[in-house]
Amino acid sequence: MEEQTRRTLTKFMGVPESDVDKVAPNIQKIIASHSKFQKYRIIAEVIDAEYCGAGIKKGQKLVFGALPPVLLAQESDCPACIRAVGPLTGFVNNLMDRIADGIDPQDGIFQVAECLDPGLEHGGLGKVYFKVYAQKVPGK
After folding, report:
1. Which of 4, 36, 86, 126 could bridge to 51 as Cys pair (CB 3.0-4.6 Å)?
2. Alpha-carbon gap, residue 52 to 126, rounded angstroms
3. Which residues are paired to 102 by β-bridges?
4. Domain check: are 28 and 46 in the same one?
5. pLDDT confidence of residue 12
6. What number of other Cβ atoms are within 10 A of residue 29's Cβ?
7. DSSP character for 137?
8. Is 53 in contact with 135 (CB distance < 8 Å)?
9. 70 and 18 assigned to the same domain
10. Pick from 69, 47, 71, 70: which is nearest to 58 by CA?
11. At 29, phi and psi to the nearest 5?
12. What is the pLDDT of residues 11-59, one digit of tens each?
């Protein structure tokens, strides 16, 4: 493990030295790529919404930091419905993986996520679809 990664884990994340060597290689890779992540925000932009009980509307956005991948409420204009946010996890993970590998995150194959409400035709009510992408932070 790189010394800088070890220092980040112990000093900034509070991992005791006795547990540092237990950190999986994939997590080490993410930590070592921290500077790459600071250049991005992850956006889940609503591309279609129908009968959403949470009030989610087409054009709204959920904005996440790239590392850690937390919702940035002050930059978002979309309600954070748990049935909408949950399915975004895999898409965010894919973007993180591409960023860590130094690959253009916009070239991913899968970019459209959908909420967990099955929609009116399948026993639910609403349905929301998001385009999930990484966006460069201006000036970084």
Report:
1. 126
2. 4
3. none
4. no
5. 85
6. 14
7. P
8. no
9. no
10. 47
11. -60, -40
12. 888 999 999 999 999 999 999 998 999 999 999 999 999 999 999 999 9
Using the structure block, give the residue that is written with the tokens 């959920």: 62
Q: Is 40 helix (H, G, I), strand (E, B) or coil?
A: strand
Match 């921290």 to its residue by tokens: 34
Full domain range(s) for residue 15:
3-32
Between helix 89-100 and helix 25-32 the angle, nearest 10°, is 70
Beta carbons within 10 angstroms of residue 114's beta carbon: 15
Report the run of H or E that residue 62 belongs to, with start and end.
Answer: strand 61-65
The pLDDT of residue 25 is: 92
Q: Say whether both 102 and 59 belong to one domain.
A: yes
> One-letter amino acid identity for 43?
I
Q: Region of 117 please: left (phi>0), alpha (psi -120 to 50) or beta.
A: beta
The stretch 127-135 carries a mean pLDDT of 97
Token readout for 94 is 């894919």
- Contact indicator for 82, 53 with CB cutoff of 8 Å: no
What is the value of pTM for the model shown?
0.90
